[in-house]
Specification:
The chain is an alpha/beta fold and 279 residues long. It has helices spanning 2-16, 57-73, 84-90, 134-145, 193-201, 214-226, 231-235, 250-265, 267-278; strands at residues 21-30, 40-44, 49-52, 77-82, 97-98, 101-105, 113-121, 126-130, 149-154, 167-170, 182-186, 207-210. The chain has nine helices and twelve strands. The chain has a seven-stranded mixed beta sheet with strand order 3-2-1-7-4-6-5, with helices on both faces. It has a five-stranded parallel beta sheet with strand order 10-9-8-11-12, sandwiched between helices.
């Protein structure tokens, strides 16, 4: 009981710290197994078991493999570790998936069966906004409603209102950011465009965008190239930011940017769902 409580305490701590991990839970056992139903383990992003226990080597390899995949695509999965004769009776092979269950072979002498639920717990997606324009402020507010961890960076002098963000930075020096799927939007709109863009180019993200016209972006691109900035990094930016929804107001433009970010964020999950629907 104490170990179980400690695992759940650590789950709460890691979630609060915005750390990615997997919670593996034994949901069913048949015959002799080292771990019993209810046993839990926390698997860190580097593949190490940092707390709890779900059995020895009989299940560990299959669970760690499933954990890596779950962290990559954000989807939970079920792993069923069974002796080879039972797999043969089911007509499945080790490594095969059927009806959402990944089967693995139990080579241990106990010859028991364990079903383990592997659940990824990922940090909130990170939205980094450089600038304090009306679009930036609206983008921050809307993104928080959708569950993003929002960091807004802009000089205090440029702010016309208090940003609705998880973290507010004076200037454009971002410092250490959450280790999460990250989206970066430059929405300075004439105030510190070059400085903000330099920082954004140097910030690793799954999506980079600039709120402004193609002509403005082309002008800034030329200046940054002259300074020695990598051309591929600049060309990674979407400009103008957002889907073409005919948006006019700052709120509408912010919504179009979030729509584009959502499409990018869910891209892998959409592909997985489409593949599953074809099976």
């Amino acid at each position: 009981m104490t170990a179980h409580v400690e695992v759940l305490d650590l789950v709460a701590q890691m979630k609060a710290a915005e750390r990615a991990f997997v919670l593996a839970t034994v949901v069913r056992t048949v015959s002799v197994t080292a771990a019993k139903a209810g046993a839990k383990a926390i698997i860190a992003a580097d593949g190490t078991i940092v707390a709890g226990w779900i059995g020895g080597g009989c299940a560990k390899g299959a669970v760690l493999k499933a954990a890596r995949e779950a962290l990559a695509d954000g989807e939970p999965r079920m792993v069923s570790v069974q002796p080879e004769n039972l797999l043969a009776e089911l007509g499945v092979s080790a490594g095969e998936s059927r009806d959402g269950i990944r089967f693995a072979s139990n080579m241990c002498p106990s010859k028991g069966t364990m079903d383990i639920f592997v659940e990824p717990v990922l940090p909130h997606p990170s939205l980094v906004i450089l600038g304090a324009s009306p679009v930036a402020l609206s983008l921050a507010a809307q993104a928080r409603v959708l569950g993003y961890h929002v960091t807004l960076a802009a000089p205090v002098a440029d702010r016309t209102a208090q940003p609705d963000a998880d973290a507010v930075i004076d200037g454009y020096h971002l410092g250490e950011l959450n280790d999460a799927k990250r989206f970066v939007v430059v929405s300075t709109q004439g105030k510190g465009d070059e400085a903000a863009l330099r920082v954004a180019v140097a910030t690793k993200a799954d999506y980079h965008a600039f709120v402004g016209s193609r002509r403005k972006m082309a002008s800034l691109r030329a200046k940054l190239l002259a300074e020695g900035t990598n051309a591929a990094a600049i060309d990674d930016f979407k400009a103008p930011a957002g889907l073409d929804l005919g948006a006019i107001t700052p709120e509408e433009i912010a919504m179009s940017i979030l729509a584009e970010i959502t499409r990018e964020r869910r891209r892998g999950q959409r592909a997985a769902n489409q593949a599953a629907s074809r099976e």
